[in-house]
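If your schedule permits, I should be very grateful for your opinion on a structural question. Please examine both parts with care and let me know of anything in them that strikes you as inconsistent. The record follows directly beneath this note:
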Amino acid sequence: MDITLLGTGAPDGLPHPGCPCAACAAALGRDARAATAVLVDGTLLLDLTPGAAFAAARVGRSLAGVRQVLLSHPHDGPPVEVPAGLPQPGRVPDGRELALLTGHRVRAVALDAPGTGYAVTGPDGQRLLYLPPGAAPAGLDDGAPPGHGGPPGHGGPPARAKPRAGEKPRVGDEAADESYDMVVADVLGRPDALARLRAAGAAGPATDVIAVHVDHDVPPGPELRRRLAAAGARAVPDGTTLTVGVYEDVPDVPRRTLVLGGARSGKSVEAERRLESFPDVLYVATGGARDGDSEWAARLSAHRERRPGSWRTAETCDLVPLLKEDGPPLLIDCLSLWLTDAMDSVAAWDDDEWAGGGERALRARVEELTAAVRETRRTVVAVSNEVGSGIVPATPSGRRYRDELGRLNAGFAAECEHVLLVVAGQAVPLRG
């Protein structure tokens, strides 16, 4: 089963008409995107958009063989003109299945937003899931591939080795049986949709995840590719034809990532963004609560409100046991507060205690932590402050903390595949 992406942009396209933003100004050439429309095997058109016939002709395709046109979401503005020879567009009621004479089966997937998703099974048995912009499956059963009674256990799909590039998943492979071969969805606008599919086992290690409905919220080019790679997804230019079930080697999501940045740089937002398309994340808050500190309480509340509701929170500085045990991804925010707690525990602020063994004890704590990071099998994203580029602290204790945080950051970064520095909300890769 082949699909041709006649468009991959948001409903208004990219750039937006008349929009002066930086992302729209840069959306030129291959980065310009028409509204998303998907042509399946030349016979099924998912979403009819203005200029679809011309878009098909530009890449050597024709809509003459289309036997069914399905709409996935409400369209604002005047009705789109139906090109001559095309059947009238329609929508399949949620949960209903449509069998086409071409051998394709289409099941309508209920969503949590206005619109309908479509699960398409081709004549060769390959499975595709297409979701409209701003939507996620309404239930786990709806996230399961057609022909299956429901999702596997809550633990998600079983781990297995990825197939080589160009290799189809094996027919007898359990994960291949449970997962869609390709998911085409609004990865940037609704990363939680991908998290739900992964939790249900409907998106597995060999699922090719294609981002569509790409809008101007993310600058095109390297930044778009970086964000999608962190989610295990990719984007392709308009007009690209893909074969469903032929595995593409999307860059692996790094197991360990350190996100550095100054105050209010956006480092926590960047760290959270890297895991928002994955289910069951454990958010490790090292700062804890501070009784009577209303400003600190407001900070904690703002962090909680922007995190996905499926994430759990643990308030602890005891990181080593968490890193040693198996479990869902960890988001540690932040190492700076972990260091404060560690220095408190060895009386590092007292010069005599520091010289009499506190320094050695702290270094042992840091070495234990970095060793646990080196050996962990969990996905870890950690946040830390970068304080070495600012004003030299006026007090000996301030300078001691600055120096020890620099050493901690360097040791932790040495064990990470990805290291990012966030400046003014922009993530600058230092490694990976």
